[in-house]
Design brief:
About 25% of the residues lie in helices and about 30% in strands. By secondary structure, the chain is of the alpha/beta class. β14 (about 210-215), α2 (about 225-230) and β15 form a beta-alpha-beta unit.
Length: about 450
């Protein structure tokens, strides 16, 4: 087992040049953000206004231990750094989020304030991990876990692929080099596999490595640009949606469909492992791999899976459920440690928060269903090389849940972790080591003479 933790240099969380307005220079006394239980984390933050230290503004820092607010500190800015100290009494995650408080006592928000538009009041944030290598999930792995997924595999094998490919246009620069297709592949469950396949025009049989990208939790079409660009580099590339809805729709059209199709916010049928709405996605994950492996261009040697957030748990499932996968690039994955709330953390994915946790506890069958789909329980099955990343400011797919998954991987599996204390979700955390490994693999591929 090899653990490679990549960290970024000590930098301001948001350069003032990012927008004309406020930004925050926030730092920890340990630049990598890793601590031991018993250590004190010292966080310093300087509020900047148009590039100059702010004077007179009220700055609030919310300190959280996992999902729980530890305290809120308020400071009157005096043109210098403020200091916040906190610690953890157990392995886990510590978070510092900063807001500017207006005259009415409410946080300011909007352009010129936020670090990221999905967190409209947060001017800056940073996080720390305590004894990350000791974070473990409670054992929830069903005794028949492997047998169950073997039965799912057998049932899926009874369904013919019956792929439907429709050629679509590619960017002008790639014409004559790449062909791209909208695809639909039969699958069990509510919807088929949908997405885009791209193939180099001159590809020979069994000549190409393959890469499958899994779409994150967004109401939009799978990307056609990513696979086309991958194919131009000599890769058999597939990008599939998480939802299996028809390709080519607009974001608004997908959202309209979701109003009736996305039953109970994705929680429908969650008292049974086979009927849970989310189960269908795992079947589509496997079926996408069946399809790419059926292509004559695949070299039968290299099969990469990649995704972030919801695409991250799909990549975990792909690596766990298909032994032909040779490399997994997993970024800020959701779906890990659904029972984390029992250790003072939070449940995963759609079941985060008190209301969703109450839903789990209202019927014990739900916890069983989620256990069959938990990334932590899939981890022991992963044998391929795997590159994982997490940001310590990620409040959506928390770093402790990612480490719970990472630490559950077999000792014999080659695993690598990239971290950053200043980044969070929404594409802000980069899988530095994984991206490098991927570029190294595909750099050696040549298609055109």
């Amino acid at each position: 087992m090899k653990l490679a933790v990549l960290i970024h240099g000590l930098l301001a969380i948001t350069p003032a040049a990012a927008f004309a307005g406020y930004s925050l220079d926030v730092r920890l006394d340990r630049s990598d953000g890793f601590y031991k239980v018993g250590d004190e984390t010292v966080c310093t933050a300087t509020l900047m206004n148009d590039g100059k230290p702010a004077v007179g503004e009220k700055l609030r820092c919310t300190v959280k231990r996992e999902r729980d607010i530890l305290r809120r500190d308020e400071f009157l800015c005096e043109g210098k750094a403020v200091t916040v100290r906190a610690s953890m009494d157990r392995p886990g995650w510590l978070f510092f989020g900063f807001e500017i408080i207006g005259p009415d006592g409410n946080p300011l928000q909007g352009e010129g304030i936020f670090k990221h538009r999905m967190k409209t009041t947060i001017v800056g944030e940073i996080g720390a991990m305590y004894d990350a290598d000791k974070i473990t999930a409670l054992d929830s792995r069903p005794a028949d876990f492997d047998a169950y997924w073997a039965s799912c595999r057998c049932k899926l094998d009874q369904v013919p692929l019956d792929p439907k490919l429709t050629e679509i246009d590619v960017p002008r620069a790639l014409r004559g080099k790449v062909k791209c297709y909208s695809i639909e592949v039969r699958c069990q469950g509510r919807t088929p596999v949908t997405g885009y396949l791209a193939v180099p025009v001159k590809a020979r049989p069994q000549s190409l490595p393959a890469c499958v990208d899994y779409l994150s939790m967004v109401w939009q079409d799978a990307s056609r640009t990513v696979p086309a660009e991958m194919a131009s580099k000599g890769v058999l590339a597939l990008y599939v949606s998480w939802h299996g809805l028809p390709t080519g729709k607009t974001a608004d059209e997908y959202k309209t469909i979701a109003q009736t199709w996305y039953e109970e916010g994705g929680k429908a049928g969650d008292t049974d492992r086979d009927t849970w709405f989310g189960h269908d996605m795992y079947l589509r994950v496997m079926r996408a791999l069946d399809f790419i492996k059926s292509r004559p261009e695949w070299n039968r040697k290299e099969l990469v899976v990649r995704g972030g957030s919801l695409g991250g748990i799909q990549s975990i499932a792909a690596a766990a459920l298909d032994p032909d996968v040779t490399l997994a690039i997993v970024s800020v994955p959701s779906g890990c440690e659904y029972n984390g709330y029992k250790q003072g953390r939070d449940a995963a994915a759609l079941y985060r928060g008190k209301e969703a946790v109450a839903r789990i506890e209202a019927d014990p069958r739900r916890a069983v269903t989620l256990a069959y789909h938990d990334g932590v329980n899939l981890a022991p099955r992963i044998k391929c090389d795997i590159y994982v990343c997490t940001g310590f400011s990620d409040e959506l797919c928390t770093p402790s849940s990612v480490f719970a998954f990472y630490n559950a991987l077999p000792a014999t599996t080659k695993k690598f972790m990239s971290t950053n204390p200043r980044t969070g979700h929404y594409g802000t955390t980069k899988n530095t080591a994984g991206d490098k490994r991927l570029s190294d693999i595909f750099r050696s591929v040549t298609v055109y003479d």
